[in-house]
Amino acid sequence: MSSNRLEGKVAIITGAASGFGRGIATKFAQEGAKVIVADLSEEAGKAVASELQGTFLRTDVTLKADWEAILALAIKEYGHLDIVVNNAGAAYRNKPTESVTEKEFDMVMNVNVKSIFLSTNVIVPYFLKENRPGSFIQIASTAGIRPRGGLSWYSASKGACITATKALASEYGPKQIRFNAVSPVVGITGMTDLFLGATDISSFVATVPLGRPSTPADIANACCYLASDEASFITGVNLEVDGGRCV
């Protein structure tokens, strides 16, 4: 059901070719936003953009040049930018922390943390120069709030994401640039087996008071609210979309 809550807004959504990102992009388009799908997966990304009448750009979120390119694309295609959803994420397989490799550590820190640094480094100056309000939404994780062994450095990267979001909200609130985060509990995505070390998630779901994993629609609905004018007084929040898991 559409209510045009994002009518006239332009959004960049990273990792939008699948999973939570695709769900967010779909919801935003349904609510009237012009969507830019930023993803490494060219075939899937183009398909999503075509389906949503949006625009695709192959994007490595760990490269500043790619952020500069996607900002330029937003301005060229739509004349402005309003929303950035930092959804692209990476994880290694749940395992003893002493067996995590330096390559795996660098991967989660670059994709989950450096990408937020680069997005703000490139896009905040645009909002300031144009004197435009802006909204950044980071997809964090309940692992950043309630960490457990086996995913220590992934959890640390998501904790950094949440802390950076709050600090940025404080710094740029006076300029009407909002920063919020959404923390999903484990859902059914291509990364589920990495988090749990198994494909059967029934034992984990038993720890969620509402009795199910998260879905792309759950995360998309939360992001839509935070991106909309309804949330114009909301900044610095980490919204737990977790069925009560972190209570």
Automatic annotation (TrEMBL):
Pfam families: adh_short_C2. The keyword NADP applies. The lineage of its organism: Eukaryota, Fungi, Dikarya, Ascomycota, Pezizomycotina. This is Uncharacterized protein. Keywords: NADP, Oxidoreductase. The keyword Transmembrane helix does not apply. One of its GO terms (molecular function) is oxidoreductase activity.
